[in-house]
Structure formats: C-alpha cells, structure tokens
Amino acid sequence: MRLAKTDPRHPFRALVRAVALALLLWLPLTALALPRAEPVPGGVTLIDLGDAAARPHARFNGRQVMVIRQDGRWLAVVGIPLSAKPGRHRLRVDDANGKRNSQLFTVHDKHYRTQYITLKNKRMVTPNAEDLKRIRRDHVAISAALSHWSTPKQVELNLDAPIHGRFEQSFGSRRFFNKQPRKPHSGMDIAAPTGTVVHAPADGTVVGTGNYFFTGNTIFIDHGRGLVTMYCHLSRIDVHPGQKVSRGETIGAVGMTGRVTGPHLHWAVSLNHTMVDPALFLPDDIVRANFPSLERDTKPKH
Ligand SMILES: [Zn+2]
C-alpha cells in the first residue's frame, strides 16, 4: 500500500507540517523566558540596549549587569536593591568599542509589610563577640558566592519552585526580631517539613556550600551572567562546589539550621549581586495562586 506520506493534499499532514514549521520559526525567538519586570526596590527592570552586533557591557551601582540577546536586540536584566530609593537611576553602558553611554530608568515605590518575630535564642538577635567574628567571615564567603560571574551559552531565566510548600509573602518585609529592627527579608520563605527534598530550579553550577551563623546549611548555584540562587537552613547538602546540576535535580533537603523559628526553605535569588524577589522568576500558575498582588502589579497596562 502506498501511504500518502508526502501528499500535500492530505489535510491533516499539511496541518502537522504547518505547525512544525511555525514551531521552528517561533522557537528561536521565544526560547528565552524573561523575569517579570517590576521596577521597584527588590524588583527587576528590563532595559533595551539596542541592536549592535557585539554585546554591550552594563553596570549598575558599580556592579556588572546581565545583558542577553532577545529578538535580535540586547536587553539588560537589572536587579534593583531593596535599599534603592524611588526615583531616577542610571545604568552605565559601554559598547563593544568602549564608548560610554548611560540609560536612565525609574524605580517606583513599593510598600512591603512589617513582620515581628520572636526568637528564644537571644544570640540570634544580639550575637556575642565570637559570633560577630564568625558572621564577618560568613559575609565574605557569601559575598564571594553571590558575585560569581560565568558566561554559559544561554541563561535560563525561568525558574521552577525548588520545593512545593506553603509560600509566604515574606520577600522585602521589614523585620523586627524581639522588637529590634533588622535588615529587610531578602528571600522567599517556603514552609515545608524537615527532609522535604530541594530541587535545582534551573541548570547551573554549585559555586559554594557551607554552614553559616544566620543561614545555616547553605547552597549557592550560579546560573550564569550574575544570576545566583541561594538555599538556606537545610538539614542536608547533597552537592559540592564545582558540581554541575540540572533543572529538577536534588540538591539537599529542608531543615531548620541557622536563624529560624521552624522548618522552611529560605530561597534567595541574586542578580548583579543584588537580592531580588524570587517570585518574579516563577511560572505564572504559581504566581497567580500565591502572589496575587504581583500578578496585578506586573500585568501589562493598556
Ligand atoms: Zn527567610
């Protein structure tokens, strides 16, 4: 029997072909998912840098910024610190020939909630002299991990949730520990029982593991061009520095090491060595179900 394998008149096959062709044309343009743009303290802004042949170099607050190719243009993906003042800010841009330019952008105000937390362990609120020494050492190691810069072929900017648990609206909240003001909360807390397996949210390389005073057992994954994710308070670390991990791979387990009131994952996302809201990188369905205010904020306005 002769099959109508190549018969263009066969309507179903013609449709399959058309869809396959459309996919081929469409994929290279949209393969790169972008984070939600939210130009607020602790948010992310996307700035068009033109269509030059060579990649421009961008810096914000003296730190190198991710620049990616999107639809034939260069796009800066800028992390805005929680401490940024609302108003105009400047992105420094050098083209491939070293010609200096700058792009102004506006950071809008955002109101974050205030949290009052009571800790039984007073040293976690007012560390002693020995603790302070350790905290300074920790800070050096943590900064080194967060400032990692690598240049993989493609950076994956769409992150999966590292665990399934109860997402708390905690990023950016101003915090008082035993009534004393402390730095705002720079990650996302996801409550889950001790032992819950933590997965890599995208491909990357482990660039640090350690046990620190506040964050307990901690893992850092470098995803490229200044995107580094951090996993804290773990009961177990299953990876080692230098190890390549794939999206979905097990890296450790939820615990309650460091400064905690119960078992949870503190998940932080750093862009240009700046902590930003991890929810901006999560899939739409998770944002819709858990961060409805973000969904409203970042919907395109017509
Ligand atoms: Zn936390």
- What letter string, H or E per element, gives the SSE order? HEEEEEEEHEEEEEEEEEEEEEHH
Q: Between the first and last Cα atoms, what is the distance in angstroms?
A: 57 Å
What proportion strand? 25-35%
What's the architecture of the largest domain in CATH terms? Answer: Distorted Sandwich
| Total helical elements | 4
Bound molecules: zinc ion
Low-confidence stretches: 1-8, 27-31
Number of strands: 20
> What do the pLDDT scores average to?
89
Tell me the number of structural domains. 2
Apparent shape: globular
Structural class: alpha+beta
Fold-level CATH name of the largest domain: Glucose Permease (Domain IIA)
Question: Which characteristics define this entry?
Answer:
alpha+beta; eight-stranded antiparallel sheet; Immunoglobulin-like; binds zinc ion; 2 domains; six-stranded antiparallel sheet; 302 residues; 17% helix; Glucose Permease (Domain IIA)
Describe the structure.
This protein has 302 residues and is α+β, with helices and mostly antiparallel strands. The chain folds into two domains: 44-107, Peptidoglycan hydrolase domains (Immunoglobulin-like); 114-271, Glucose Permease (Domain IIA) (Distorted Sandwich), CATH 2.70.70. Helix content is 17%, strand content 35%. It contains four helices and 20 strands. Strands 8, 11, 13, 14, 15, 17, 19 and 20 form an eight-stranded antiparallel beta sheet that branches. The longest helix has 20 residues, at 11-30. The radius of gyration is 22 Å and the shape is globular. Residues 1-8 and 27-31 have low confidence and may be disordered. It binds zinc ion. The site of zinc ion has 4 residues, from loops.
